[in-house]
Amino acid sequence: MASPIYLGVVGVGGVGSAFLQQLARLPNAPQLVLLARSSQTLRAPAPAYTPALPADWKAATESAGVTQSGALSVAEMASYLAAAPGRAVLVDNTSDPALASAYPTFLRQGVSVVTPNKKGFSSDLALWKEIFAAAAQGDALVYHESTVGAGLPVISTLRDLVATGDQVTRIEGVFSGTLSFLFNTFAPVSSTSPAAPWSQVVSQAKDLGYTEPDPRDDLNGMDVARKLTILARIAGLDVAAPDAFPIESLIPAELADLPSTADGITQFMARLPEFDSQMAAIKDEAAQQGKVVRYVGSIDVATQQVRVGLQQFPQDSAIAGLKGSDNIISFYTQRYGSNPLIVQGAGAGGDVTAMGVTADLLKVVQRLR
C-alpha cells in the first residue's frame, strides 16, 4: 500500500480555489492537513493528523475536530508539516514574497514545495541557489511549472532539453497573457475595421479582468522580466535579479510617478489617452514594413543577453498570429535547428494555472511514494 502523503495549502484566492476544486476530484489524493489564508489557519490535529480536511474552505471551517487558529508563522507551519507521520508537501498558491523567501525553511525539514509563486525563483540569485540547495539537503522536491506560462509545459520542456544535453541557444516569446491580448487587439494582423486607440484597449482589458487591478503592474514589464529570469537561470545563466537587464516599460514617463492608490489608478487611466499617438506611431512604423509590434521577452544564451520589450515581427510569423491572450514560447536549440520547439496556449487564468499546480503535485506525490 502506498505511503500517505500529507498536504498543506496556503492561499485560497482565484488560483487557490481552483486548485482545491481540482484536488477534490483527484483519486488517491494526498491528505489535506493544513489549509491557510492570510488571517486564519485550519489544521488536522496532531499527532495523528486525522481526520483530513475537506478540499473546500467553507466545509473545512465547519468540520468537526479541525484545529482553527490565526495565521501561523513560517516556522510553525514548517514544523507542523515536517512532524507529519509521512512525507509532506507545501502548496503555496499565493504571490507572497515573504513566504517564497522561506521555502528553504520547509525544504531543509524534508517538506517539498509546489507553487505558482514567481517571487522565490525570480528574485535574488542567492535565494534561487538556497532553495535548491535546501531541497537537496532535506531530500525534498521543488516544482514550479506554473511560475511561467500558467499550465503550459514551459519549465518542464526547458528542463528536459537541458537535462538530456541539448544546447539551448535562444528562447523567445510572448510571456504575458495580458500584453498578448493588448497587442493582438491593438495591432492585429488583419482587421476589417480600424483598431481602437491604445488607451481604449487597455481600458477594455481592465474591464474584462485581463489586467491586474492596477494595469501598470502589467505595463511595466516586470512580470515578464520575472519569467525570463526563471528561464534564463534554468538555461544556465546566473541572472542576478529581474531588473538586471533591459526592460521596456509601456508606462509613459510623465505618468510613472502617479501613486499606487485607487486615485492614482484613476488618474493613470484618465490621462493615458494623451499618449495614444505615441503608441499609434509605433504600430504604424511596423505596419509600413509589413510587420506588427508585439511585447516579447528574449534570452540569447550564447551572449548571455536577456531583454524584455517591443519588437516587430513579420505578419506571417507565429508570434504575430497569436489570438486572444495566448502565450507562445519558442526554444531554439542545437537539436531542433532552425525550426524551434514551440509551446503555445493559454498562459493566464485561474483554472489553467491551478492545473499546472495540480500536475506538479501529482509528479511530486509519485516521486515521494
Task: Give a description of the structure.
With 369 residues, this protein is of the alpha/beta class. It folds into 2 domains: 6-151 and 351-368, NAD(P)-binding Rossmann-like Domain (Rossmann fold, 3-Layer(aba) Sandwich); 154-346, 2-Layer Sandwich (Dihydrodipicolinate Reductase, domain 2), CATH 3.30.360.10. The chain is 38% helix and 19% strand. The chain contains 15 helices and 12 strands. It has helices at 14-24, 57-61, 74-82, 97-101, 103-108, 119-122, 125-137, 154-163, 177-186, 198-207, 216-219, 222-234, 262-271, 276-287, 350-368, and strands at 6-10, 31-37, 40-43, 67-69, 88-92, 111-114, 142-143, 168-174, 291-300, 305-314, 326-333, 341-346. Strands 4-3-2-1-5-6-7 form a 7-stranded mixed β-sheet. It has a 5-stranded antiparallel β-sheet with strand order 10-9-8-11-12. Helix 1 (14-24) links the parallel strand 1 (6-10) and strand 2 (31-37). Helix 1 (14-24) packs across helix 15 and helix 9 packs across helix 10. The longest helix has 19 residues, at 350-368. Residues 153-362 form the Homoserine dehydrogenase catalytic domain.
